[in-house]
Give the backbone structure.
Amino acid sequence: VATKGVFEARECVVQRVAAAARPKVREVGLDDAFGMVLAEDAPADRDYPATARSIRDGFAVQAASLPGGFEVIGEVRAGAAFVGTVGPGQAVEIMTGAPVPAGADQIVMVEHAVREGTRATTQRAPKPGEFVNPRASEIRSGEAFVAAGTRIGIAEVAGLATVGRVRLKVFEPPRVAILSTGDEVVPVNAAPQGNQVRNSNAWALAAQVRRAGGIPVMLPVAPDEPEATRRLMAEGLACDLLLLSGGVSAGKYDYVEPALATLGAEFFFDRVLIQPGQPLVFGRAQGRFFFGLPGNPASTMVCFEVFGRAAVELLGGQKESTLPLTWARLAHDVSHKPGMTRFLGARLADGVVTQVPGQGSSDVAALVRTNCFLVADAGREGWAAGEMIRVLLR
Ligand code: AMP
Ligand code: MG
């Protein structure tokens, strides 16, 4: 149908899915919200902080009186308030988190003052505002503290708890059907013959789907036979997304594309300039998107991360889709044939990345030794040791 470069193909997925995603909304308690996608803005219920707060233990003073000696006229601790006003030459002893008394505009850290009875002295220079977080300096009442379409991670849980959202609206996670194809593929609890392999792709994909916020729905393995493939696909298309593994190459028994075609599928692309994973199919049938991922385990995994993950996230109502790319320093030379973007299994530690040797995209043992993929750009021939290269985290 169409061949695309990696980033062009990903953009196609993002555009198509974002335009079509209509996730349903449900209400949950904060204790069930972790990992879900927020379906409404959670606004700040007041200014944060609600009053000017000290961010140090020390003395609240007028900056204009610094440096110098002060009369300590009282104290204020977190959770309390000082009644009265700090005048020139006066100080109130203050604890971290306590509201800054009226009249004071600077905190002198306790470490920078000498206290003798009711007097304190300091050599600190005037710096109005130092160690004071003004009212509303973090966020104003009514502004979105956590925005709709955000996946609720640990910081978002802190945010929702801060604004008191014990009940909140989240999106229903998309149900994602996983259908492996191949006469040689047997269930993972089976003892495979020499000519068989266990269905590891379905399990890896299920974990990847969960991480992307979806609910995996595992179908039985489809044999390399058009009618059975078609029947299981039709079942999978009842979910929000269908992931197929295997059967998309040009082999004599690769039935995925023809079977999809009999279900009225529209194909957006069926080849991507990516290695591993060239024959990669993306389309829509019966109102549902599908991916035909190549069956070799490294291909399946990389293609899901680069393309499928975005689809699951967007179908789940996320505003943004994740492609965790970063840069790292190469431990060694890398040579590569331009024309394809290659994802090479590698290990990243302390900002330095080293390729993991292996037997290619069927080598799951090598995959397990990786913790990331080097991204060899389609436009370059090679990299020298010490150069920066892009890395896809996994
Ligand atoms: P295919 O894309 O159907 O040509 O499959 C390529 C290779 O990937 C096969 O020869 C299998 O060794 C392997 N493979 C296919 N499907 C799976 C699967 N579900 N789990 C693990 N390996 C698979
Ligand atoms: Mg096959």
